[in-house]
Specification:
alpha/beta, Rossmann fold, 6-stranded mixed sheet, 3-stranded antiparallel sheet, 23% helix, globular
């Protein structure tokens, strides 16, 4: 797998520092609020766990699985709810835990869903924010790193379900996915 990586963008140490920084900020911002962290599967699971470890507050966690990439390198633009939450979010402080915000479509879908379910407050904590990819207005409240316009894998991020287990975030060599690039 490492041979398929062009270069490392964010090392294990970089990610650890970002998780610590944001975990501390969330601890400060959510003291006595008992938020529910909603981890967006599958990509955000590692980020969610690492940030939670840095939080010193009572917090619940739940999982939701939505898909917009369908295995490719670009968002298909159509969001599918694959696995729904088990918790009721009505009247709750919600923190959406994302691996990456690119087009913003998935995030907007989730925010609309949580508003419809009457969440009290919705904030977003993402490992990576790629503002150049936005096609809808969506923003994160807590950001690990601003991402340049690159196709990245590792630390939960995948290409065709592979590379998630890399402990860092790296740029995938274009030769790996050239046949899948949109025109």
């Amino acid at each position: 797998m490492n041979n398929d990586i062009e270069r490392t963008l964010y090392s294990v140490e970089d990610i650890k520092e970002a998780a610590h920084r944001l975990g501390q900020q969330l601890t400060e911002d959510y003291q006595d609020k008992r938020p529910i962290l909603i981890s967006v599967l599958k990509g955000a699971i590692l980020w969610t766990v690492d940030v939670m470890r840095e939080m010193d507050i009572m917090a619940e966690v739940d999982f939701i699985d939505v898909s917009s990439y369908h295995g490719g390198v670009a968002s298909a633009g159509e969001i599918q709810l694959v696995h729904d939450l088990s918790a009721d979010v009505a009247g709750r402080n919600v923190i959406i835990m994302e691996d990456i915000i690119d087009t913003g479509r998935t995030l907007q879908f989730l925010i609309d869903l949580l508003k419809q379910r009457q969440a009290k407050d919705i904030k977003v904590c993402t490992l990576l924010d790629k503002p150049e990819g936005r096609v809808v207005a969506a923003k994160a409240d807590y950001v690990g790193f601003k991402l340049p316009k690159e196709f990245v894998v590792g630390y939960g991020l995948d290409y065709k379900e592979f590379y998630r287990n890399l402990p860092y975030v790296g740029v995938l060599k274009p030769s790996v996915y050239e046949g899948d690039r949109p025109e």
